[in-house]
Every structure is written in C-alpha cells, then in structure tokens.
C-alpha cells in the first residue's frame, strides 16, 4: 500500500491544493496532508486552524472520504517526517515555470538528506494554476470575492480573521 506525503503551509488551502489532492488520490492508496509549522514564515492561520480548515474543506464542503486521507501538522525536516510516517514519496505541485526552480532545488536537497525519498510533481489543471494562498489572502484582505479560489469554510474563516 503506497502512501504519499503532501507537505505545505496551506495558509489557507485553495482549489489549487485540492486539485492536487484529487489527483494524488487517483494514484496513491493513502495521502498524508502534512501542514508545515516551520518558524521561518508568518502565517495568517495557526497550524491548528489550518488543520481544521482543511478538514472542514475536504470532509465538510467537498465530501471527500476520510479513509484515504490523514491530515497532520509537523515542524521537522520533511525527510524526517517521511521516515516517521513510513513513506518515501513526497508530492509537490507545479503551477508555472517559476515554481520549478525552487521545487527542483528543494527536491535535490531532500534527496541529499534522505536518498530513499522521491519527489513526484503534479501540475494543477489550467483553471487552478494561477491560484496561490498568498493571492487569496491579498484579495480577501481587500474585500474581494475569493469564491472561485477556495471553499466556503475557508472564506468564512478568512472573513472572521481579517475583519476582527
């Protein structure tokens, strides 16, 4: 039974992330969505809030089946997390060529840290390639409509967080 780890900040989860999750579930038996809580980034939502938002989005808004998906937070090297979860496959998404350089470098570093880890890249569908968490937050901060980019649960929590 092959399981893949999809690490990211998911601050917040978008339809771009969800597109990759759907694709991964067609390829792998199990998917671990690993929410990074690293110290080098400023997050809008805490790790616990992001975990809750992913659960509400996937299992509430979109009715995904829970049996194939595990959602956890982590604050270690991704390669150490892979070892802990007994998986040697990392899933990463590519939206545009600008993503490739960073992802290529990250993949190489992960391989140096653990030679057994493989990184698989999947492309978002064209309608989701422009979506990023950063842009969704910026649009929401300016009171723009983000319903084309993320789920109802995320929109509700963005409004609560940004209008507080």
Question: Would you give an account of this structure?
Answer:
This protein has 164 residues and is of the alpha/beta class. It has a single domain (3-162), classed as HUPs (Rossmann fold), CATH 3.40.50. Helix content is 45%, strand content 19%. It contains six helices and five strands, in the order βαβαβαβαβαα. A three-stranded parallel β-sheet has the order 1-2-3, sandwiched between helices. Strand 2, helix 2 (47-61) and strand 3 form a beta-alpha-beta unit. Helix 2 packs antiparallel against helix 6. The longest helix has 17 residues, at 97-113. The model has no long low-confidence stretch (mean pLDDT 94).
Structural class: alpha/beta
Supply the number of helical segments: 6
Termini distance? 45 Å
Could you describe the largest sheet, including whether it forms a barrel?
3 strands, parallel
Domain count, please report it. 1
Low-confidence stretches: none
Q: Just give the CATH class.
A: Alpha Beta
Helix and strand arrangement:
Elements: E1 3-8, H1 15-27, E2 30-36, H2 47-61, E3 69-74, H3 78-85, E4 89-94, H4 97-113, E5 118-123, H5 133-141, H6 152-162
Parallel strand pairs: 1-2, 2-3, 4-5
Helix pairs in contact: 2-6
């Amino acid at each position: 039974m092959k399981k893949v780890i999809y690490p990211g900040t998911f601050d917040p989860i978008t339809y771009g992330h969800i597109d990759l999750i759907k694709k991964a579930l067609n390829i792998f038996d199990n998917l671990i969505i690993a929410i990074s809580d690293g110290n080098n980034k400023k997050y809008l939502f805490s790790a616990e809030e992001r975990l809750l938002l992913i659960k509400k989005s996937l299992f509430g808004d979109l009715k995904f089946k829970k049996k194939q998906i595990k959602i956890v937070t982590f604050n270690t090297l991704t390669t150490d997390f892979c070892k802990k979860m007994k998986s040697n496959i990392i899933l990463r998404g590519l939206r545009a060529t600008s993503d490739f350089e960073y992802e290529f470098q990250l993949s190489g570093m992960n391989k140096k840290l653990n030679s057994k880890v493989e990184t698989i890249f999947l492309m978002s569908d064209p309608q989701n390639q422009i979506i990023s968490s950063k842009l969704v937050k910026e649009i929401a901060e300016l009171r723009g409509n983000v319903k084309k980019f993320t789920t109802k649960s995320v929109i509700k929590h963005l409004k609560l967080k940004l209008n507080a």
